[in-house]
Design brief:
The protein is α/β, with parallel strands linked by helices and 325 residues long. It is 30% helix and 23% strand. Bound molecules: adenosine-5'-triphosphate (ATP) and magnesium ion (MG). InterPro entries: AAA+_ATPase (IPR003593), ABC_transporter-like_ATP-bd (IPR003439), ABC_transporter-like_CS (IPR017871), FeS-cluster_ATPase_SufC (IPR010230), P-loop_NTPase (IPR027417).
Amino acid sequence: MAWQIQCTASAPLISPPPSLKPKCLPPHSLVFTLPVARSSRFRSTHTPSPRPVAASLSTVESPTSADGLDDSSKTPLLEVKGLTAVIAETKQEILKGVNLVIHQGEIHAIMGKNGSGKSTFSKVLVGHPDYEVTGGSVVFKGENLLDMEPEERSLAGLFMSFQAPVEIPGVSNIDFLNMAYNARRKKLGEPELGPLEFYAYIYPKLDLVNMKTDFLNRNVNEGFSGGERKRNEILQLAVLGAELAILDEIDSGLDVDALRDVAKAVNGLLTPKNSVLMITHYRRLLEVIKPTCIHIMEDGRIIKTGDSSLAEVLEEKGYTAISAA
Ligand SMILES: Nc1ncnc2c1ncn2[C@@H]1O[C@H](COP(=O)(O)OP(=O)(O)OP(=O)(O)O)[C@@H](O)[C@H]1O
Ligand SMILES: [Mg+2]
């Protein structure tokens, strides 16, 4: 029997202006979709989201949370109920009824075998065009997330770091970030930052992820090593902020020092109001970014939710022990 799911998560994406869309990208690429957040947990210099946070939602049943506290005392950020989704092109069903509630200030982790639907779930949340939602509901900050365009999701405070960040030939990292950041400021009615002002804004954030300034002038992810791409994803998060940051295998390909830097950066961006949904295969990430609860996904559903001891069971006994329990 599936456990009741108590966690919540969310993050927005922003698309760059059409003028920057390279022709060599695949048609369904979300390469240019940037997470933009104005939140409190991922501290940015920005103003809070215009969308009010709903005090409570009755559509999701989550009487108690994984930490044993009454959920009525918490503010839900993301509420996913019975979410089903297919691959747009083939109509193959991948998500088969995902339930998940994430409250403000919580860190949730999703683990699961390769191909169980973790990345698909996160991409559906940010509105990736490769997938069609066929059922269920997703409420983010009290509003129907599924009604929003990817850009609106980003502006609402949803950020996603992709498992395999894509290169954007011909567009420098700093121009890309400046553009995405200004798009968000424009939407919020704030004045855009010119190149010099933006440099002053981003410069201290490089330290946060331990990146050299050279990376700002290189084309987005072009020639970046796997670990450098992951650091760059966290730099995007630091620049744009997010109320819900979805980090899909942010630890993959990182050496020990890089993992520590990335974890430190993520932890440094956390505030009591923002949340993280991280997907990982390894306990080492969960030791440095400590989750409120861990969910196990199998065949397009969350089949179990628990505390960090779940990750220990997994490492010692594998998924068979979880599936059979
Ligand atoms: N756009 C797509 N086209 C075809 N198949 C897809 C597509 N997206 C997802 N799938 C399939 O859906 C299943 C779930 O994929 P997904 O990437 O969500 O798995 P995952 O749990 O993230 O796995 P991993 O741990 O390996 O990253 C896989 O069998 C995958 O091949
Ligand atoms: Mg994946």
